[in-house]
C-alpha cells in the first residue's frame, strides 16, 4: 500500500467485517456496503470515519434513521419491501422461524408502518416508525 | 490580452448578433485601451496580413500593458458621441477594468442612452451591457471590501493575521475537545461490558459514571471551600475545647475500632460539623467560614437539582414520544439487535432471545384476547398487593423497634454490649434491603403480569421499601436529637457550676482576675447533636457499602465458584439447574445507587466528609463491579428495561433528592444549633449567618434592598405569579398533546383510506385484467385466420359463458393468436364498453 503516491486507499469488505466491533453483527455486510461509495463495500478512510460517526452516540436521530434505512434496504431500491424484511428477519433469528411465521411477521410489520399503502416502506414511513422507537438510539450504536 | 477564451466569447457574441439592424447597432458603445510608450520603443511592429493570418505566429508579438515611462489610455465612443478618455495608471486587470467601468462607463451610458438597452463592447475584455454595469459596481464594492483577502492592498497583513488567529483558535478548540473526550474515565471497561452484556447492563455502569462525575463536583465544593480553609487557616487541633478529644475519651481515641466507628480522633477533625469554629472571619484572607459552610450546603443541593433536571430534559428531548404500542413488530425487527455486542456467546444469546421474543409475539397476536378467569387474576393481584403491604409495614415496624432498642442501649452505655447490639440498626436496614426484594419477586409471580409491567411494579415496591426504611430511620434520628438537646440544657447548667468551682468559691461575677488556664480537654462538653447526626449517616453509608460488597462476593463470586467446580460431582446440572450463574440485577443495583446518593445529600451538611467518602466508594464500586460482572455473571436471557429511556431512573433520583433535602432543611430552620460546637454556635438559628453577613459585610443599601425583597408582601405575589405561570404552561402543554393526538389520528385514518383505495384499485385492475383475458380467450375461440387455418379451440374460461360472441375477424387481421399484443385487448375492451 503506497500511501504517498496512491493516497486514496480503499479497504475491501472482507477486511472490515472482521473488526471486533462488527464481527458478531448480522448486518455487518450491509453496514459496510451502505457506507461505501461503490456500493460493493470497498471503503476509503473518509467512508470509515463516516460510518463510525453515524454509529456513535452523539449522531443525531435523523441521521441514524437515514443510514438505518439504507442498511435494511437489501436490494437498494430505496424501499424496504417484503423481501428485505424477510432477509432482515432471517438474519436476526438465524432462520429459526418457520416460513409461515416469517410471512406473518413481515406482513404485520408492513401493516404497522406503511402509510401510503404501497406494501413497502419508503423512507418517510420508516422514519416515522423509527423516530418513536424508544430503543433505537441505544441499540443503533457502536462504541469505538 | 485576447486569449482564446475571450476570442471565442467575442465570436459567439458576434454570431448571436449577426442579424442585427442598424438601429440596434446604434445602441452599442465601443471601447478599447491603448498603450503609449514615452521614452523607448516597445518593438511594436506594423504588420500586414491576410484576415486568416491574424493570429499567426509571425504576425503577433507579446505586449506590455503598462510600466514606467508609458501611458495607458482608455476611451469609448458610440453612435451619438464620443465617450470619456481615461488615463489608466495601473495594470489593466479585471479589477481595475471594473473600477473604470463602474466609474465612467455607466454614467456615460446613462447619459447617452435614455433607456437601459445600450450595449458596450470593449477591445479586449468581455462585452457587457448597461445592466451589468450595476453588477460591476457591486463587484467593485466587493473587491474593495475584501482587498485584503484577495491578497492585494493594504488590508492584507491584518487579514492574514486574523485568518491565522482564527485557524489557531479552531485548532485549539478541537484539541481541547479531544482532550476532554480522552479524559472520560473507564471508556474501555464500559465498552467491554457492552460487548459482552448488551446495552441494558452497561446502562448501569454509565449511570454509575455519571454519578461519579456529580459527586466529584460536590466533593470539590466541600473539600475546597469548607475543609481546606478550616484545616489551613482555622485554629489548630487542641486549641479549643471543641477541637480536642475530651479527657475521658483520650485513652482509646486511636483504637482502630473507635476510628472505624468514626469516634475518637476522627470525630474531632474537619470531617465533622463539630470541629468548626464560629469565628466570623479566619486567617489572613478574612475567609468567612460560617457563611461559606452555609452556602456550600445550599449550593450542593442547588447544583444537584440543576444537574438532574438538565439531564432529564436532555433525555426527554432525545427519546421523542412516549411508549406507543402501535409499532410492535416493526420495532422488534429494527431495534432489537444490539449493535454493541461483540462477543460470540452473547451474540448467540441475543439471537436466541430475539427468536423467542418473536415467537411469543406471534402467539400473542394469533390467539384471541379472551380474558379467561379475569376474576381469579384480579383476586390474585389484590392478594399480592396486600401481602406486599404487610411486608412493608412489617419492615417499618422492625426498624422502629430496633432504633428504640438502640436508644435504650445508648442510655445504658454502649460498652456493655457486643458488636451486634452496637450496629443493630445498620445491619437490620441492610439485611431488610437484601431480602425483601427477593420476597417481592416471589409474591409477584402470583400476579401474572407482562414482564415489563411486572418489573415496574417490582421497582415501585423496592422504592417504597427503601423510602419507608429511610424515613423510619430519620424519625428515630429526630428522637435522638431531641434527647441530645435535653442533655444539652443539663450540660449548660452544669457548666456554670463547674466554672464557679474553678474560681474556688469566688462568687463575685465582676471579678477581673485573669482566667485560670484550663486544658481544653478538661472542659465539660455539650453533646453535639449535629456531629451525632453526621456520624450516624457516615456509619450507615459504610455499613451499606460493606453489605453490598459482601453480598457481591458471596452471592455472585462464591456461587459462581461453587457452580463451576462442584458441577462435576453433583447429581443435577448445576449450571442449568438450581443455583446456576447469577444474572446482573440492573434495577436493584440502580436503586441501591440512588438511595445511597439520597443519604449523601441528607448528611452532607452535617458531615462534610460524606461527598469525599462517596467518591471513594463509587471509585471502588466501579472496579469491583466491573470485575464481578465479567467474572461471575451471565448475560440476561430476557431483557426488559423498566422504561424506554433513562428518565425513569432520573425521575426517581429527583424524587429522592427532594425527599432527602426536606429533613435537612427542617433541622436547619427549626432547631437551634448547639452552643459549643460547629460554625453556627451561639446563634439562635443557623440561617442567622446570612443576616449577620448582610449587616456587617455589605453596604447599607444592600441590606435594605434585601429586607424589602424578603418582605412577605413581595414574596407572596411572586409565588402567586409562579403558580399562574406553571398553570399556564401546563394547559398549553395539554393543548399541544391533544393536537398531537389529533394529528396522529388523522394520519391513521388517512393511512387506512389510502390502503382501502389502493385495495379497491388493485381489485378493480385485477377484475379488468380478468375480463380482458376472458375476452381474449373468447375472441380466440371464434377466430379464423385469414388464410383459412382453423385454430384449435380454446375452452372458454368460467364466467364468460354469458358474454355473446362478437364478430372480430376484421380487427384480428394479420395477428396470430397467442402473441402478446397491446392493442388487441384494448380494442376488445372498447368494443365491450360499446356493447354494455
Automatic annotation (TrEMBL), chain B:
Transmembrane found in the keyword field: yes
Domain (TMC): residue spans on this chain: 528-643
Assigned keywords, A-Z: Coiled coil, Membrane, Transmembrane, Transmembrane helix
Biological process annotations from GO: cellular response to mechanical stimulus; detection of mechanical stimulus involved in sensory perception of sound; vestibular reflex
TM ranges: 210-232, 253-276, 291-309, 382-403, 427-446, 458-478, 590-613, 648-669, 705-729
Region feature Disordered, mapped onto this chain: 786-836
GO cellular component, one term: plasma membrane
Location in or out of the cell: Membrane
Pfam families with a match to the protein in the record: TMC
Predominant subcellular localization, coarse grouping: membrane
Record-linked PANTHER family: TRANSMEMBRANE CHANNEL-LIKE PROTEIN 1, TRANSMEMBRANE CHANNEL-RELATED
Similarity-based family: Belongs to the TMC family.
Name of the protein in question: Transmembrane channel-like protein
High-level lineage: Eukaryota, Metazoa, Chordata, Craniata, Vertebrata
Amino acid at each position: 500500500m503506497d500511501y504517498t503516491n496512491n493516497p486514496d486507499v480503499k479497504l475491501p469488505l472482507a477486511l472490515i467485517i472482521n473488526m471486533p466491533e462488527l464481527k458478531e453483527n448480522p448486518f455487518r455486510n450491509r453496514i459496510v456496503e451502505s457506507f461505501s461509495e461503490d456500493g460493493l463495500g470497498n471503503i476509503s478512510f473518509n467512508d470509515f470515519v463516516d460510518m463510525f460517526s453515524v454509529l456513535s452516540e452523539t449522531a443525531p436521530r435523523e441521521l441514524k434513521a437515514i443510514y438505518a434505512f439504507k442498511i435494511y434496504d437489501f436490494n437498494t431500491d430505496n424501499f424496504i419491501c417484503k423481501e428485505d424484511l424477510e432477509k432482515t428477519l432471517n438474519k436476526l433469528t438465524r432462520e429459526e422461524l418457520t416460513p409461515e411465521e416469517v410471512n406473518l411477521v413481515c406482513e404485520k410489520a408492513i401493516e404497522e408502518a406503511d402509510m401510503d399503502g404501497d406494501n413497502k416502506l419508503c423512507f418517510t414511513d420508516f422514519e416515522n416508525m423509527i423516530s418513536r422507537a424508544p430503543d433505537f438510539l441505544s441499540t443503533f450504536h457502536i462504541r469505538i | 490580452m485576447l486569449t482564446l477564451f475571450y476570442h471565442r466569447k467575442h465570436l459567439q457574441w458576434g454570431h448571436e448578433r449577426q442579424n442585427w439592424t442598424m438601429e440596434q447597432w446604434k445602441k452599442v458603445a465601443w471601447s478599447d485601451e491603448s498603450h503609449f510608450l514615452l521614452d523607448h520603443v516597445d518593438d511594436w511592429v506594423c504588420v500586414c496580413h491576410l484576415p486568416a493570418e491574424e493570429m499567426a505566429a509571425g504576425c503577433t508579438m507579446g505586449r506590455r500593458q503598462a510600466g514606467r515611462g508609458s501611458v495607458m489610455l482608455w476611451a469609448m465612443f458610440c453612435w451619438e458621441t464620443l465617450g470619456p478618455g481615461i488615463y489608466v495608471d495601473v495594470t489593466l486587470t479585471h479589477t481595475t477594468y471594473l473600477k473604470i467601468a463602474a466609474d465612467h462607463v455607466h454614467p456615460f451610458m446613462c447619459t447617452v442612452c435614455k433607456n437601459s438597452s445600450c450595449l458596450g463592447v470593449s477591445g479586449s475584455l468581455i462585452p457587457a451591457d448597461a445592466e451589468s454595469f450595476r453588477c460591476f459596481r457591486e463587484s467593485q464594492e466587493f473587491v474593495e471590501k475584501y482587498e485584503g483577502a484577495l491578497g492585494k492592498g493594504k488590508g492584507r497583513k491584518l487579514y492574514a493575521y486574523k485568518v491565522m488567529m482564527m485557524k489557531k483558535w479552531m485548532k485549539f478548540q478541537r484539541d481541547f475537545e479531544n482532550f476532554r473526550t480522552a479524559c472520560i474515565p473507564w471508556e474501555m471497561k464500559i465498552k467491554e461490558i457492552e460487548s459482552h452484556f448488551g446495552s441494558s447492563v452497561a446502562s448501569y455502569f454509565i449511570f454509575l459514571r455519571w454519578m461519579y462525575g456529580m459527586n466529584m463536583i460536590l466533593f470539590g465544593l466541600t473539600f475546597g471551600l469548607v475543609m481546606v480553609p478550616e484545616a489551613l487557616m482555622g485554629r489548630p487541633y487542641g486549641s479549643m475545647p471543641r477541637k480536642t478529644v475530651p479527657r475521658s475519651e483520650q485513652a482509646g481515641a486511636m483504637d482502630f475500632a473507635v476510628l472505624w466507628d468514626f469516634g475518637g480522633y476522627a470525630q474531632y477533625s474537619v470531617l465533622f460539623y463539630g470541629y468548626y469554629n464560629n469565628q466570623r472571619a479566619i486567617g489572613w484572607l478574612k475567609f468567612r467560614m460560617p457563611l461559606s459552610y452555609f452556602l456550600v450546603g445550599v449550593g450542593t443541593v442547588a447544583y444537584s437539582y440543576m444537574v438532574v433536571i438538565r439531564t432529564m430534559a436532555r433525555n426527554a428531548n432525545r427519546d421523542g414520544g412516549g411508549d406507543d404500542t402501535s409499532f410492535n413488530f416493526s420495532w422488534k425487527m429494527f431495534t432489537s439487535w444490539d449493535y454493541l455486542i461483540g462477543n460470540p456467546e452473547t451474540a448467540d444469546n441475543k439471537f436466541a432471545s430475539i427468536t423467542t421474543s418473536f415467537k411469543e409475539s406471534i402467539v400473542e397476536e394469533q390467539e384471541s384476547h379472551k380474558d379467561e378467569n379475569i376474576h381469579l387474576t384480579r383476586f390474585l393481584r389484590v392478594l399480592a398487593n396486600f401481602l406486599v403491604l404487610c411486608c412493608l409495614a412489617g419492615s417499618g415496624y422492625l426498624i422502629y423497634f430496633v432504633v428504640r432498642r438502640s436508644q435504650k442501649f445508648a442510655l445504658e452505655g454502649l460498652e456493655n454490649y457486643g458488636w451486634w447490639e452496637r450496629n443493630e440498626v445498620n445491619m437490620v436496614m441492610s439485611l431488610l434491603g437484601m431480602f425483601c426484594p427477593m420476597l417481592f419477586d416471589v409474591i409477584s409471580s402470583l400476579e401474572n403480569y407482562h414482564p415489563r409491567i411486572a418489573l415496574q411494579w417490582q421497582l415501585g415496591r423496592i422504592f417504597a421499601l427503601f423510602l419507608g426504611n429511610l424515613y423510619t430511620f430519620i424519625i428515630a434520628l429526630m428522637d435522638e436529637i431531641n434527647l441530645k438537646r435535653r442533655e444539652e440544657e443539663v450540660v449548660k447548667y452544669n457548666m456554670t457550676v463547674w466554672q464557679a468551682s474553678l474560681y474556688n468559691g469566688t462568687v463575685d461575677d465582676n471579678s477581673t482576675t485573669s482566667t485560670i488556664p484550663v486544658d481544653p480537654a478538661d472542659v465539660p462538653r455539650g453533646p453535639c447533636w449535629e456531629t451525632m447526626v453526621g456520624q450516624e449517616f457516615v456509619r450507615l453509608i459504610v455499613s451499606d457499602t460493606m453489605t453490598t460488597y459482601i453480598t457481591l462476593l458471596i452471592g455472585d463470586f462464591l456461587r459462581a465458584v461453587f457452580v463451576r467446580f462442584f458441577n462435576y460431582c453433583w447429581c443435577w446440572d448445576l449450571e442449568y439447574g438450581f443455583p446456576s450463574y447469577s444474572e446482573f440485577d440492573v434495577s436493584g443495583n440502580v436503586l441501591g445507587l440512588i438511595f445511597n446518593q439520597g443519604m449523601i445529600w441528607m448528611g452532607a451538611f452535617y458531615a462534610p466528609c460524606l461527598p469525599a467518602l462517596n467518591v471513594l466508594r463509587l471509585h471502588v464500586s466501579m472496579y469491583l463491579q466491573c470485575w464481578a460482572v465479567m467474572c461471575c455473571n451471565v448475560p440476561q436471557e430476557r431483557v426488559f428495561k423498566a422504561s424506554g429511556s433513562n428518565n425513569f431512573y432520573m425521575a426517581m433520583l429527583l424524587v429522592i433528592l427532594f425527599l432527602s433535602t426536606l429533613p435537612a432543611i427542617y433541622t436547619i430552620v427549626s432547631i437551634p444549633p448547639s452552643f459549643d460546637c460547629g460554625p453556627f454556635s451561639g446563634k439562635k438559628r443557623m440561617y442567622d449567618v446570612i443576616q449577620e453577613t448582610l449587616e456587617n459585610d455589605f453596604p447599607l443599601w444592600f441590606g435594605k434592598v434585601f429586607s424589602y425583597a424578603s418582605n412577605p408582601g413581595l414574596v407572596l405575589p411572586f409565588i402567586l405569579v409562579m403558580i399562574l405561570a406553571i398553570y399556564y404552561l401546563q394547559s398549553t402543554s395539554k393543548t399541544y398533546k391533544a393536537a398531537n393526538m389529533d394529528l396522529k389520528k388523522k394520519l391513521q385514518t388517512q393511512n387506512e383510506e389510502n390502503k382501502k383505495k389502493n385495495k379497491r384499485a388493485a381489485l378493480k385492475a385485477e377484475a379488468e385484467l380478468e375480463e380482458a383475458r376472458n375476452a381474449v380467450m373468447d375472441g380466440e375461440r371464434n377466430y379464423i385466420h385469414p388464410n383459412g387455418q382453423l385454430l384449435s379451440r380454446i375452452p372458454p374460461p368460467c364466467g364468460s359463458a354469458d358474454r355473446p360472441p362478437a364478430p372480430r375477424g376484421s380487427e384480428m387481421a394479420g395477428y396470430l393468436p397467442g402473441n402478446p399484443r397491446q392493442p388487441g385487448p384494448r380494442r376488445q375492451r372498447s368494443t365491450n364498453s360499446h356493447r354494455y
